[in-house]
Amino acid sequence: MQKIKVNLGKNSYNILICSDELNKLGPCLKRLNIGNDAVIVTNVKIKKLFGNKLKKQLVSSGFNVKFETIHDGEKAKSEKECMRLLNNISKIDTLRRLFIIALGGGVTGDLAGFTASVYKRGIPYVHVPTTLLSQVDSAIGGKTAIDLSAGKNLVGAFYQPKLVFSDSSFLKSLPEKEIISGLAEAIKYGIIKSPHLFSFIEKNYKKILKYDKKCLQRIIYECSFIKARIVEKDEMDNKNIRVVLNLGHTIGHAIEAAVSYHKVYNHGQAVALGILSSVYIARKMNLLTEKSSHRIANVIKNVGLPVKLKNVNLKNILLAQSHDKKFIHGRNRFVLPLKIGKVIVKESVPEHIVKDAIKGLYESKKR
What we know:
Layout lengths: L1 E5 L6 E6 L6 H8 L4 E7 H17 L3 E7 L8 H14 L5 E7 L1 H13 L6 E5 L2 H7 L4 E6 L2 E8 L4 E5 L8 H18 L1 H15 L3 H21 L15 H10 L8 H18 L5 H13 L11 H9 L10 E7 L2 E6 L3 H10 L7
Parallel strand pairs: 2-9, 3-4, 3-5, 5-6, 6-9
Antiparallel strand pairs: 1-2, 7-8, 10-11
Helix pairs in contact: 5-6, 5-8, 6-7, 6-8, 6-10, 7-8, 9-10, 9-12, 10-11, 10-13
């Protein structure tokens, strides 16, 4: 088992990375002393796959366990679903030492974490991420949120978990599409901070897509380490440091909102298209070499992520992008690559360049 500590003073916690070691979660939770009553928030599919095993392990460690099932997919992150979850938890909570376990991917983690942050002004929660995307990214850093019709993650809070328990054996249950989706975030980390990670994905993507345990654990560890170090420097995302984690997300989130979070594009696919838009903007502003832009486009294509946009209305994307919470005082803000391993934050990118970058995603010609 590998351990990465996220050093945030009183909000510090560990990320544990392992494989087939779910039996160690109960003892880890006991040492945290966060309560005796666990509410596991998960969806029906994940509960069926892992719920009984997790419950058995926790009960054997002395915990009382209840499940709260939520919808699958982004629609779970609605005001209605959040209020339903809060009301159900209140019925369970009768002067108990309650804590939440988020068992699932990024959607489950966002909703469960936000619920934990507002119930009784904050109760402990733990992430047990079951997707590659959540293990490399969304389970770490304490960003919790639900969506509004105007945009993604518009209602949220910074609320750190007490533990992130990333067991790569969960990934065996995922369809290849979900591994590919997670690789979009891993590629992002390579672009913003680690040319070595980027090269590793370039050279080993075939093994990764075959669920090679060593490759997956290396990716999970390196991405987790990078994010932990960034979050330590800018926990509340107000020092212009953590913003680099938004590479590809400005337009990526707009694509997701434009299709009302339906499964036309999942989060990883939307982020990949957002990264390509950022590459286009960087090239137009003479910030990125043609060689680097081709490497980024090629690795996105090779792992199976989309490089072209279909069946999404351009006006809807532009409208959603105008609601993006990363706007500062009415000015847009983009994370742009300077080279693989280094990015820059640019405000007030000319609107015609942004529009051309999105329009370019529809084109079949080589960009």
